[in-house]
Specification:
This protein is of the alpha/beta class. Helix content is 28%, strand content 25%. The protein has 8 helices and 14 strands. Strand 6, helix 2 and strand 7 form a beta-alpha-beta unit. Helix 1 packs across helix 8, helix 3 crosses helix 5 and helix 3 packs across helix 8. The radius of gyration is 20 Å and the shape is globular. Bound molecules: 3-amino-D-alanine. It comes from Oceaniferula flava.
Length: 335
């Protein structure tokens, strides 16, 4: 029998992608409840051949709901997820709100599926997209060689800022394409022009000089892999790409590494493939993974500087595996 499933933030980019994933994976649903702000209430969204009317989110929206997927920002999760959990609903939250809570599992189904069993708050957290994509590449190598440190730089799509990030890039590309200039009025999402530019800041700066996004990679990697001493340092950069994040990673391990063996580990590994043949100019680019489930790894090489280290490049769709698909896969694990 199907589940009574709610999506909070159904009208956003991730919410829409969740609907696509639920349909494509034939997720068993007896009733779909779409919840959003009063502004969006009343909208009708197609699902499995019928139109579902969006309802306004309230604290009482979760009576008899089995699973609720939240993707409406940290504020909404903070305010409404506890009410949903208290109503007996299993909450899968895509915001950063509960990720580091002791009693909340932080799950990538291909890595730590068993963690969902211990959910005293009835809340399961979906990791940050950059963490998911990076760890999809590193986990198979961790199983082989024992991961000890990560040095990474990310190249993050504008979809990470929601639909408005995509709009801002497209608008600026259009103006530049017609010989115009980007004005300050066109810089709402980002502090600088994003078209034909890169911005070495994702999310707010902290006192350490790292941004919140960079500290998410540090904290979430340790929790998901259960490696409390894992060393992680990264720089997260926004680039003028629509949907896929790319990450350049140098990873160090306990044991000596072998590139051929490392490349081969991805064959038949769920959710991640290798696209890696440098002699023939073969490696993954963001357009390869857009709207696709799997992440792709390439540029794998034995690192020239660090002992027992591999340097590689991984790409994944930020909206899909980075958010919506991962949340739906977690929902599939919930009995
Ligand atoms: C971003 N990872 O890319 C953050 C949130 N989705 O903006």
């Amino acid at each position: 029998t199907g589940k009574r499933l709610a999506i909070v933030g159904a009208t956003g980019a991730v919410g829409q992608e969740m609907l696509d994933c639920l349909e494509e994976r034939n997720f068993p649903i007896s009733e779909l409840i779409l919840l959003a702000s009063a502004r969006s209430a009343g909208k009708e969204i197609p699902f499995r051949g019928s139109l579902i009317k969006v309802k306004e989110l309230t604290h009482d929206s979760f009576a008899d709901v089995d699973i609720a997927l939240f993707s409406a920002g940290g504020g909404i999760s903070k305010e409404f997820a506890p009410s949903a959990a208290a109503a007996g609903c299993v909450v899968i939250d895509n915001s950063s709100c509960f990720r580091m809570d002791e009693g909340v599992p932080l799950v990538v189904p291909e890595i730590n599926p068993e963690a969902i069993k211990d959910r005293p708050k009835n809340i399961i957290a979906n990791p940050n997209c950059t963490s998911i994509i990076t760890l999809m590449a590193l986990y198979p190598l961790h199983q082989l060689y024992g991961l000890t440190s990560v040095i990474a730089s990310s190249y993050q799509a504008v979809s990470g800022s929601g639909a408005q990030g995509i709009v801002e890039l497209d608008e600026q590309i259009k103006v530049l394409g017609s010989g115009g200039e980007v004005t300050d009025e066109m810089k709402n999402v980002y502090p600088h022009q994003i078209a034909s530019n890169v911005i070495p800041q994702v999310d707010a700066f902290t006192e350490s000089g790292y941004t919140k996004e960079e500290l998410k990679m540090f904290n979430e990697s340790r929790k998901i892999l259960s490696l409390p001493d894992l060393k992680v340092t990264c720089t997260c950069v926004r680039v003028p790409v629509h949907r896929s994040h790319s990450v350049s990673v140098t990873a160090q391990f306990e044991k000596p590494v072998d590139v051929a063996e490392a490349r081969a580990v991805y064959a038949n590994y769920p959710g991640i493939n290798s696209k890696d043949d440098p002699e023939n100019g073969i490696y993954p680019v963001p357009l390869d993974t857009t709207k696709k489930d799997d992440c792709l790894v390439g540029r794998m090489r034995k690192d020239m500087v660090l002992e027992n280290a591999l340097t590689l490049w991984v790409v994944g769709d930020q909206v899909r595996k980075g958010a919506a698909l991962n949340a739906v896969q977690i929902a599939e694990l919930v009995e």
